[in-house]
Amino acid sequence: MTDRNSKVLVRRKEGRTLAGVCAGIAAYLGLDVTLVRVIWVVVAVLTGGAGVLAYLAAWIIIPDEGRQSSIPENLAAKKNSDAWSG
C-alpha cells in the first residue's frame, strides 16, 4: 500500500516547455523550474551535449503525469502480452 503523500517523480503537464522533465524534477525536489532548466543547460554545455542525452533518457524513463508506467515499461508490457497471445 502506498502513502498518498509520498512524492513521485513524473513528467509534469503543468509548466511543461518540452517534455515536462525539468518541471517534474523541480516539483519533486521543491525547486523553481527555471533554476532546474538553467542548471540543465549549463550541464549540457559543460559536458559537450551529455546533458541533452540525459534529458532524452529522462524523457523516456520518467513516466508522464497521470500514468503509472514509463515508455519502456509500456513497451515491455505490450511485448509480454503479445508473446502470450499466441
Concise summary:
By secondary structure, the chain is mainly α. The mean pLDDT is 79. It has one domain (21-84).
Task: Describe the secondary-structure layout.
Blueprint: H1 21-29, H2 33-46, H3 50-61, H4 71-84
Helix pairs in contact: 1-2, 2-3
Overview of the molecule:
The chain is mainly α. It has one domain (21-84). Helices cover 57% and strands 0% of the residues. It has four helices and no strands. It has helices at residues 21-29, 33-46, 50-61, 71-84. Helix 1 (21-29) packs across helix 2 (33-46) and helix 2 (33-46) crosses helix 3. The longest helix has 14 residues, at 33-46. The protein is flat. The mean pLDDT is 79.
List keywords for this structure.
single chain, mainly alpha, 0% strand, 86 residues
How many discrete structural domains? 1
Described by strand count, sense and barrel closure, the largest sheet is:
none
Bin the strand percentage. under 5%
Secondary-structure-derived class: mainly alpha
Strand elements, count: 0
